[in-house]
Specification:
repressor (chains A, B, C, D), DNA binding (chains A, B, C, D), DNA-binding, 12 helices, mainly alpha, 76% helix, TetR family transcriptional regulator (chains A, B, C, D), homotetramer, DNA-binding (chains A, B, C, D)
Amino acid sequence: MSEQDKSTLHSMTEELSEAENMTPKQIKILEAAIEIIAEKGYSATSTSEIAKRAGVAEGTIFRHYRTKKDLLISIVKPIITHFSAPFFAKKFVKEVFQDTHTNFEDFLYAFIKNRFEFVKSNIPLLKILLQELAFHPEIQGTFKKVFMEKIYPAINRTLTLYKEKGQIKDLPNDTIIRMMAPTIIGFLITRFIVQPDKEWDDEAEIKETITYIMNGIGK
Amino acid sequence: MSEQDKSTLHSMTEELSEAENMTPKQIKILEAAIEIIAEKGYSATSTSEIAKRAGVAEGTIFRHYRTKKDLLISIVKPIITHFSAPFFAKKFVKEVFQDTHTNFEDFLYAFIKNRFEFVKSNIPLLKILLQELAFHPEIQGTFKKVFMEKIYPAINRTLTLYKEKGQIKDLPNDTIIRMMAPTIIGFLITRFIVQPDKEWDDEAEIKETITYIMNGIGK
Amino acid sequence: MSEQDKSTLHSMTEELSEAENMTPKQIKILEAAIEIIAEKGYSATSTSEIAKRAGVAEGTIFRHYRTKKDLLISIVKPIITHFSAPFFAKKFVKEVFQDTHTNFEDFLYAFIKNRFEFVKSNIPLLKILLQELAFHPEIQGTFKKVFMEKIYPAINRTLTLYKEKGQIKDLPNDTIIRMMAPTIIGFLITRFIVQPDKEWDDEAEIKETITYIMNGIGK
Amino acid sequence: MSEQDKSTLHSMTEELSEAENMTPKQIKILEAAIEIIAEKGYSATSTSEIAKRAGVAEGTIFRHYRTKKDLLISIVKPIITHFSAPFFAKKFVKEVFQDTHTNFEDFLYAFIKNRFEFVKSNIPLLKILLQELAFHPEIQGTFKKVFMEKIYPAINRTLTLYKEKGQIKDLPNDTIIRMMAPTIIGFLITRFIVQPDKEWDDEAEIKETITYIMNGIGK
DNA sequence: AATGAATGAGGATTCATTCAT
DNA sequence: GATGAATGAATCCTCATTCAT
């Protein structure tokens, strides 16, 4: 697995701390914040609780993040970026366009597998994103931008390509996306948030999901 | 449209106030609470803001609802109940089992149409439910109970029936549900929450959704 | 036992309601108020709690008592009056001055016995008086007035008489009172408030108390 | 006067602040709380009033004491402890048992004198203790514990010793205590709480009190 | 960089009291 | 007389944030 691959998969918490030059305390703060906010929601989480869990003084948080909201943003923005990363990673592009996956089904498998691992490694972060997206225009803005500029075009190109290859139905891309997206996202949410404790046969589930999608949009 | 039908569709806010003997102020409080909580989330909503919007004194809220959480619960519980209502309404059962809808596709259409209208009339309520479900065990409990005791059995019976009729694939019911549910729910969320302002051709969307589902699970 | 005697002994709660023309609800309110205030103190007792315990609406209290404090006063004032009653009851005076009790010891016994029964029948009322005396100037005023005008003169006369009879030491009355009072009051407080649940041999305790007092001030 | 002696006498307010490492504001809070609670009672005292009198923000109170009740407890507990201190102080024990006071009267004088000074230096604290003892089980518990484990045994030993020495009557210790205690406590309450403003000849009063007690229980 | 005491605005909730019915 | 809905000031307490050390 290439370096790049890894970076789109493994836990962002670790990454955050590597990337920027963070003090150990700052990392503790981030970790504590993610844990608690994922559990109780941003508004219901107090900075003092974060400080306590992180083992730092209350003031320390504000040394690193001007406001509580800043802390939220600096948790949420990187996930958005990372979430979109594979869509314009060289590898992604190459594979799709250079026949590494000759058929759509293989591509779908690789894609779902990749996002599955990403979600698996970042459940609390994504829970936070999912919840707070609803309430914070800044986050919505960032998300929309990334989606419109990165994710949507990449998917568009990919779908067009496979349509040209004659492997999927000749529906408008938007329609295809509106069908596929809930199926994949719904699976991931069910798997990791609604029923995380159930014993899942992940491989089988992924394959069934692909079959369902292929029935819906495949030729 | 029968009386019964209506009761599963139209706005619950009205209904709440009709059912119980509420004072005008109490209704104002409920309406204001629903509006603001849907917009900002439960935790970020202050009782003083609710009071102001409702045009009552802050103390009045606590005369009707012992705590802020009580207010939330009394907003959320009825939606859960109402959401499940059609699944065990006589009409629902009759239609499904007495050949009113002879084929699954017709049934699906009627069902999605019905839930579509319900969601349309109760967006803020459902937004609140969706958000707060994540944080309040009491709500989770109520939801799980209604789902396991009412919704799930009804769907199960229906699917079994149509499988016997040979109209849908012979997959395990759970698998079918896991496929259909995100497709339908995903459509409704996209339609009413993610992109409520887009100009939608609802009839066309519903039909496409049905086609997609039928491709996935139909024979 | 004469009518008059009884009136200085039995529970004042009953009496209050007989005396004035009170509605049943008002009596309920008084009873509830006495119970709760004795238990938690005036300040910590809410009118709504009183209303609930009394089984009346919140507003009803204020129909009978202009303010919460009025309610306290109308509980406390009668006890003060009643507490002082025997000191100027005809019988008290007669007995002391007309040789019914020829010696001080007999008088003391009759006196302590009488006050013992009074306290026994009015514990909650007296608890309230004891507690609230400290904080409410109005109550202090009433108490001082009754004490200076009724109780103190009566005791004074009595002590002087028995001094003349040569049955008690020739100490200043004030000194005698300062010795006797805590002994008697201390006994009653210990008996009914500090250790009400202990098994007491009341007769023996009273006699010991008298002996102790007589040793201290008797000749 | 030895260091030890002093610690059983002088104002506890000072001591509290020396002992623990308190910030100046915390001391101010304690002082203000003691003043106001002694005057109006715990329940009738608001934290905002305490804050105002202490010259701090209301929030500051809760930084030092988790709840208002915590504040009360941390005022009241130390008095209980200090009140009992002399009973098991080395000096107390030594003097009693090693013939420093050969007779009971001298011992009584020293004892009353010592407690007299303690009360004099801690009137507000003791007022609070006296009032709130009635309503707070925690305080009652602490008090009972200290009394049963420290004060009562010490007094018991002392009385037994003096009985053996033949200086006091051969009554049960409990009886002796029930006589002496109200006499001494009653004197202190009259002196400092009931009539603090009267001009007292303290030395004379103490001697009279002793005489009274000795008549009652002395041989 | 880190602390933690201090703040004061704002939080939910309670309260005594009023008033239309 | 009695009700109970309504009030809004006041209650205890929490919060994000600041600042001197």
